[in-house]
Design brief:
heterodimer; A: Glutathione S-transferase Yfyf (Class Pi), Chain A, domain 2; Rossmann fold; 4-stranded parallel beta sheet; B: mainly alpha; 15 helices
Chain lengths: 354, 232
Amino acid sequence: MIYEGKQKIWSEYQKEIPDDHYFYVRSCIRQSFFPASERTLLDIARNKLGKDIFETEHHTTCGGIAYHSDTIPQETVMTIIARQFALMAKNGYENYVCSCITSFGLYCETLETWREFPALQEKIADNLWKSCKLEFAKPKFLVHASDLVFKYRNQIAAKGKYKLVNIKTGEPLRVVEHIGCHYSKMFPSKGVGGAEYPYVLVGMVEAWGGKIIDYPERRHCCGFGFRQYLIKSNRSYSLSNTHKKFESMAPFEPDMIITNCPGCPYFLDRWQYVIAESQGKTYGKDGRGIPVFTYEEVAGLVMGYDPWDLGLQTHQVPVEPLLDKIGIPYDPAKKYLGKDGKDIGKPIQPSCLK
Amino acid sequence: MGKLYDKLMEDYRLKEGLNACINCGTCTAICPAAEFYKYDPRRIVDMVQSGDDSVIEELLKSETIWYCGECMSCVTRCPRKNAAGLIIMALRNLSIETGLFMESEKGRQMYILAKDLNHNVLNYGYCVYPRNFPYEGHPEAGPVWEWEHAHLDDVFERLGANLDGDGPGAMRKIPAENLEQLKRIYDITGATERLEKIKQAGLKKAAELGLTEEEYIQKLYTEGTKMHLNHC
């Protein structure tokens, strides 16, 4: 699709994102596999941009993975969500920002269902009081954490030390953006730019100097599929979907992938390892993979954070070739050290994936 | 219309997700599951809107309702704003409620999902808890996860997380009173009852097969027939 056409679509899907004062809720997968990403988001928002982002230790999972694996009823997950919203109000906030895409989609679905069925909302409020003695409340504004970084993208660029530009050629890096399915496929109006051509990551990449590349399977799912990944004997579903995406994007020679979903970067990173080790096929140049990043990690790189503080050593596809392209310095000797330089060993190198 | 259909229509996901499907097949064309599994959401939605209880019972016993990945890609493209993914969720819900999920290989996998995910939710406050994500069960997580999992406390400390610690932060310890609230939510909203139903059905099946619980779990986790896939 031509760029002007996308701009027209984007203009139809504008979303109001308050600038400040948020109640922040973490993601189960993000915390487990990319804990430094959440820390980076909070550090940038609070300490670099001076925003008020509040977190309480009393919030929990939204139950989304248990719900989308069909293990708990809809009424259960709605009451857990009502508890999260009640904590927001109890702490004096009305803007709610969540780190997880599954959560975000579920919050959108829940609020819409409550709007259409007020009696159900009353029942959930009653459940909440009976179980937690908390007052029912709803957020005035609901955003995903990538919406927030989209909102701050120009401020991040202004304070940035690096651009998504090849330091040797001066050319913008070629970036694939991957949006988590539950960000806007169910409710296009709730995502920046809609569902067909979401703008949330495109806006960040453009502001930070990179160039988005289009490819046929751009909107295809990473393949998590909840039960399709969690059960080992179903896992070929997950692998097959990631494989389909990489086969589609490879001819366009991307330098990197940026994602806004907690699970997608894990799958796009790890399945490259599996494809390389089992088939001998890699999608980057010279036997390398295509490095995959969270949007918080990319924001952190642009702002000049140390790559190992961002947790990039926990990726399976090495990120160093990309750091070299941008000209970001790093100390290879410190890559796998623990806190204060503690020696905690290092991973075994894969036999095929460089 | 039959009793199963009426029961299905009580589900808010069906009320939201079924708006007179015109059978165009767009959902099937866009569906990631349909590409790999013998799965056709167009046909499933058509079967549901027939309202015929014998047809719906066939679905509730089937393998096919368990192939969806709940990505909801179908929702975006449907010209009638149907949501095949939500209809699947309602079917799975009723399949569990009626006990018919035990009739299919994929349905029986509910035993592991219910046990593991909700163990994490009720004991730690998270759906995913990294200490319970062993490399041995997830070799695809690669040698970097093998290393990370073996040094989880050190890596999380290095990355500024708060693994099992007090106060806020990534993977903090959720206070006991909050876990008790989750348990009460489970009790009054039917989750506890559902988990027990899935557990008892699984244990009964394990006993029929002469397997211990652990052997049954391993069987469910690792054994799968190729009949599910399109090319087989």
